[in-house]
Every structure is written in structure tokens, then in C-alpha cells.
Specification:
33% of the residues lie in helices and 8% in strands. With 285 residues, the protein is α/β, with parallel strands linked by helices. A five-stranded mixed beta sheet has the order 2-1-3-5-4. The two termini are 32 Å apart. This is Type-5 uracil-DNA glycosylase. Belongs to the uracil-DNA glycosylase (UDG) superfamily. Type 5 (UDGb) family.
Length: 285
């Protein structure tokens, strides 16, 4: 498929409160879920972050030099914010944007082969409006699902450092806090995302087992939130569903990288199974 020749999207104007480094923890989210304005504000702040010098230099260099196949594109070349509705019940946590995928298009898993696999699976299980994602204006909608990553900038060789992961963590913590009233299930793609996400869940208020569970495909870990009040009759396992904010269930899944999908380590059927199970827990199917 030929790449669109129009710019992926214009750079947003950052609000006056935007900070070049992760901000202090966000205030408690509204009872009914994250408001679009609150999550939109966070997304703009993420897009304006310049905290990691190595990542800033790399993402901007890629945006200048481009790939020959995308020479007519205006690359995004910034941190890539999360994508999906503010009242999502299911969250998908990846690794980091691809240099010529999200770093080009400005949307998570959009414009690369990993995204081709993920969005096809989401479409197959009824969580996306279409099976492809090529640009931010392609009409794609997610149903009850949001996609994010623990590192928002494209890293060299697709390998963020532990320091870059930790520097970016406050953004994920804030996003989790905003999603917390509606969030019921999380699919974490890959060991790096797993290692990054569990500390973020702990900071955002969920109870993470100690020792922390190891990553494996098919791992399923409930994270209760005992610090949140529950409605009478709320389930003891922390998954209160519609009765009020509670726990989440976290699922491990091999990453949708080309290495995994080309070798068959992760098949479309395996991915659909994890997504379907998580969607059921989230009350989306």
C-alpha cells in the first residue's frame, strides 16, 4: 500500500501548563471516569515532553532523514500519546513507538507491521472499527479500548534504557489514574512493558503482589485496589465491574513485534485469545 502523501497530522499547540519533563502526579480522577479534557490535556503534555536527550535526538533525526518509502510524509517526530476513549475498560500497554510507525504518524501502533497485526486482531474480536491503521485521519475507532506505552518516544534499535523507562513512568501513572474509574482489564505486550507497567500500577494505587509476578504469555494477575471505596455487594476479588471503581486483571501477551509474529512465537489466534479473554473481563463482550 502506498503511503499517504498528506502530513500525518499537524503538531498540536501545547497548553501553557505543558512541561518538558513529567509532571507531578495528577489529582484524583472524577468519579465517572476520565474526562476527555483531562486526558486530552495529558496527551498534549506528553507530546511536549523533552526529558530524555537521547530519545529527543533520535526521534528528531529520524523525522528529518525519513525512510525512502515515506519521503513525502511530514513525520510527527515527538512523543506519541495514548490512543482511545477516555472511559476505556481495557488498556493495551506496548513498549515504545516505532521509528517509522508511531514516530511518523503520531498514533500508537499506526503505520507499522506490528500495528497491522494488533489492529487486525482488535477488529477480529470486535474492539476496532477497521482492521488497518495507516494514519491519524484514517477513521479508525476503538471500542472501549485505549492503547498506550511505558515509553512515548521512539528509541534507537527499539530499545529504551531503564533510565528512559523510569523517566517516562510518571506519564503512565497519570494515565492510569485518569482511567482508573472505568478500567477493568489490561493486556501488556512483552516483558519490557510488563516490567514497566507493574510499578506504574503500584504508584497509581493498585496492589501489586510481592514478589512481582514474572512475565509469560498467558499470565493473568488480579490487582485489587483496596484503597478505593466499594459499593455494597462489590466483589471480593476486586473486579467490581459496574458497581464501582475496583481492581483490574492484568494479562501478559507476547509483543506483536515482527520477530515474534514472523517466527510464529505469537500467532493471530494466540493474540485473539488473550484479547477476547481480557475484553470479557472488562465487560466489552
Amino acid at each position: 500500500m502506498d503511503a499517504p502523501k498528506a502530513p500525518a497530522r499537524p503538531a498540536p499547540a501545547l497548553p501553557a501548563s505543558a512541561s518538558p519533563t513529567p509532571a507531578s502526579p495528577a489529582p484524583a480522577p472524577p468519579a465517572s471516569g476520565a474526562s476527555r479534557s483531562a486526558l486530552g490535556e495529558l496527551d498534549l503534555r506528553v507530546a511536549g515532553c523533552g526529558a530524555c536527550a537521547r530519545l529527543v535526538a533520535w526521534r528528531e533525526e529520524v523525522a528529518r532523514t525519513k525512510r525512502a518509502a515515506f519521503a513525502d510524509w511530514t513525520y510527527w517526530g515527538r512523543p506519541v500519546p495514548g490512543f482511545g476513549p477516555p472511559d476505556a475498560r481495557l488498556l493495551i500497554v506496548g513498549l515504545a513507538p516505532a521509528a517509522h510507525g508511531g514516530n511518523r504518524t503520531g498514533r500508537m501502533f499506526t503505520g507499522d507491521r506490528s500495528g497491522d497485526v494488533l489492529y487486525q486482531a482488535l477488529y477480529d474480536v470486535g474492539l476496532a472499527s477497521q482492521p488497518t491503521a495507516v494514519s491519524v485521519d484514517d477513521g479508525l475507532e476503538l471500542y472501549g479500548v485505549r492503547i498506550t506505552s511505558p515509553v512515548h518516544c521512539a528509541p534507537p534499535a527499539n530499545r529504551p534504557t531503564p533510565g528512559e523507562r523510569d523517566t517516562c513512568r510518571p506519564w503512565l501513572v497519570q494515565e492510569l489514574r485518569l482511567l482508573r474509574p472505568t478500567l477493568r482489564a489490561v493486556v501488556v505486550l512483552g516483558a519490557f512493558g510488563w516490567q514497566a507497567a507493574l510499578p506504574a500500577f503500584a504508584e497509581a494505587g493498585w496492589t501489586v503482589p510481592r514478589p512481582r509476578p514474572a512475565f509469560a504469555h498467558g499470565t493473568r494477575v488480579p490487582l485489587p485496589a483496596p484503597d478505593l471505596p466499594r459499593e455494597p455487594g462489590g466483589r471480593k476479588d476486586g473486579l467490581d465491574g459496574a458497581e464501582g471503581p475496583g481492581g483490574v486483571e492484568v494479562f501478559g501477551c507476547f509483543h506483536v513485534s515482527q520477530r515474534n509474529t514472523f517466527t510464529g512465537r505469537l500467532t493471530p489466534a494466540m493474540l485473539r485469545e488473550v484479547l477476547s479473554t481480557a475484553a470479557g473481563v472488562a465487560g466489552l463482550t
